[in-house]
Write a structure and sequence with these properties.
This protein is an alpha/beta fold. 42% of the residues lie in helices and 17% in strands. The chain has a domain of 192 residues: Rossmann fold (3-Layer(aba) Sandwich), CATH 3.40.50.720. It has a six-stranded parallel β-sheet, with helices on both faces. A two-stranded parallel sheet has the order 6-9. Strands 7-12 form a two-stranded parallel sheet. Helix 5 packs parallel to helix 6. The longest helix is centred in the N-terminal third of the chain and has 22 residues. The protein is globular, with a radius of gyration of 18 Å. The two termini are 33 Å apart. The structure holds NADP nicotinamide-adenine-dinucleotide phosphate (NAP).
């Protein structure tokens, strides 16, 4: 397959090439080459490259920033994907769009299934949810892959941040009232590849298995790295961030397993792999 990737310089884009690139031809773009809010630019790309699929990783992912730059959030997270959906529908190109656990309010006390009622708590969540809705309305054969708590090589992430702060300060505080599944970005690539190869449509939840709070995640990082720092649990209220986050972000990934045979390794095994791969 020839696959065009938008938003390809971000966290997931940096982690995607090694695995899909062996079997499929990938062309990476980011905002400098293809701004997804510019339909004309997108049309030119599709006409020149004639891809079989487009993977949309482009998004405004600064969750607190979205509370301030609301119009920008709607433009990038909702209008952009709608334009992609229209283009892909017009040119017969498969669209795989990525979304988030922040479409949920976190009040469910068991893992979230794809058909569970969304109820976003933030501008980011609302714009991503409406993006999903528009994409599937315009292009019913599109795929929506919902991801969560991603980390991977390149740039700062939760792990590099807590390690840096612990080294600088000797003690850190981490929220203990948000539960999710930390997910190693390279691990979501095989599911993405399989979903595309099988020509599937609709929404899929993809995450490493098991769950923890951010506090428990930090504790596991320090334990594996043998870092002797004091880690204290705090509530989200203490952080006083602009955007509210769901207290439960855990996905039920049985639909992915049923349709592709894939279930991802535990978050602890994935974390070990990341720490071994990262110098
Ligand atoms: N990271 C997570 O924990 C997480 C969790 C759940 C879901 N997701 C979803 O997974 C997908 C990929 O996330 P990520 O973490 O890789 O995001 P990311 O690191 O923020 O990367 C997004 C990329 O899109 C680019 N971009 C922004 N506006 C654009 C536009 N108008 N046209 C084209 N490119 C544009 C960004 O460029 P600039 O940096 O220059 O803005 C950036 O390179 C997104 O759909 C996100 O909502 C991520």
């Amino acid at each position: 397959m020839k696959i065009l990737v938008t938003g390809g310089k971000g966290l997931l884009g940096r982690n995607i090439e090694a695995q899909i690139g062996k079997e499929h031809s990938l062309i990476f773009t980011d905002i400098e080459e293809w701004d997804i809010t510019d339909e004309g630019q997108g049309e030119e790309f599709i006409r020149i490259h004639r891809p079989d699929a487009v993977i949309n990783l482009a998004a405004y992912t600064d969750v607190d920033g979205c509370e301030v730059e609301v119009e920008k959030a709607w433009r990038i997270n909702c209008e952009g994907p709608s334009k992609l959906a229209r283009l892909c529908e017009r040119y017969g190109v498969k669209l795989l769009h990525t979304s988030t656990d922040y479409v949920f309010d976190g009040t469910k006390d068991t893992p979230y299934k794809e058909e569970d009622e969304p109820n976003p708590l933030s501008v980011y969540g609302r714009t991503k949810l409406q993006g999903e809705v528009e994409v599937l309305k315009i292009n019913p054969s599109a795929l929506i892959v919902r991801l969560e708590w991603l980390y991977g090589e390149g740039g700062e992430n939760f792990i590099t941040k807590v390690v840096r702060l612990a080294k600088e300060r000797g003690r850190i505080e981490v929220v203990d009232d948000q539960k999710g599944s930390p997910t190693y970005a390279p691990d979501v690539v095989l599911p993405i590849k399989k979903l595309l190869e099988k020509g599937l449509s609709g929404i899929y939840h993809v995450a490493n298995s098991g769950s923890c709070t951010w506090f428990q995640f930090a504790k596991e990082v320090f334990s594996l790295l043998k870092i002797d720092a004091e880690v204290n649990p705090i509530t989200s209220d203490r952080l006083n961030r602009k955007a509210k986050r769901p207290s439960n972000s855990v996905y039920d990934c049985t639909k992915l397993k049923r349709d592709t045979g894939i279930s991802l390794r535990s978050w602890q095994d994935a974390l070990r792999a990341y720490l071994i791969n990262t110098p």
